[in-house]
Specification:
It catalyses: L-glutamine + H2O = L-glutamate + NH4(+). GO terms for molecular function: glutaminase activity; lyase activity. One of its GO terms (cellular component) is cytosol. Belongs to the glutaminase PdxT/SNO family. The chain is an alpha/beta fold and 183 residues long. The protein has one domain: Class I glutamine amidotransferase (GATase) domain (Rossmann fold). The strands form three sheets. It has a seven-stranded mixed β-sheet, sandwiched between helices. Strands 5-8 form a two-stranded antiparallel sheet. The longest helix has 11 residues. The N and C termini lie close together (6 Å). It binds glutamine. The site of glutamine has 11 residues, from helix 4. Glutamine (GLN) binds next to helix 4.
Length: 183
């Protein structure tokens, strides 16, 4: 048995996450409507895209509160870019202050090299939010110029960048680590 990871598939960059999760041995399901929430899954990925659109669709489809509750109850979750904004500003399950589109007025897309402890991590930013402040119990996982760009808080991992676009699995492994023990 492998863990089943649900990927929010309303809008944005969800297919790349599914492919990466499958390459790591996971089964993936897509969350497109409230009925999909009744299917069993062990973890959740909230992809990049447009957080205002995603939040509106979640409300309109009656998926917002059930998902928020599952995350608040401890469902392992990885939010990337817009997914970070959902966790911090909409679900409010992640005690982090973010500023949207904070990396300049141009398209705001760039590559950089961050640090995970002493190791380099490739980072791709696309109109990314900046993590401006972190609350209690928030651990930085990846930093760029000493500022956190990926964090962990209990069951939640969130990144300002797009790990699905670079060849580095560490954030996925961090999501899956507690699940793999159960299988
Ligand atoms: N700018 C988007 C937002 O505010 C996030 C961009 C992304 O997910 N790549 O929701």
């Amino acid at each position: 048995m492998s863990p089943t990871i649900a990927v929010l598939a309303l809008q944005g960059a969800f297919i790349e996450h599914e492919q990466r999760l499958q390459s790591l041995g996971c089964t993936t399901i897509e969350l497109r409507q409230a009925a999909d929430l009744a299917r069993p899954f062990d973890g959740l990925v909230l992809p990049g895209g447009e957080s205002t659109v995603q939040a509106k669709l979640l409300h309109d489809l009656g998926m917002f509160e059930p998902l928020r509750q599952r995350i608040a109850e401890g469902l392992p979750a990885l939010g990337t870019c817009a997914g970070l904004i959902l966790l911090a500003d909409h679900f409010r399950t992640l005690p982090v202050t973010v500023r949207r589109n904070a990396y300049g007025r141009q398209l705001g897309s760039f590559h950089a090299e961050g640090r995970w402890e002493d190791e380099a991590v490739p980072l791709t930013f696309i109109r990314a939010p900046r993590i401006e402040a972190t609350g209690p119990g928030v651990e930085p996982l990846v930093t760029l110029n000493d500022a956190p760009v990926a964090v962990r808080h209990r069951n939640q991992i969130a990144a300002a960048f797009h790990p699905e676009l670079d060849d580095d699995n560490r954030l996925y492994e961090a999501l899956l680590a507690p699940l793999k023990r159960a299988y």
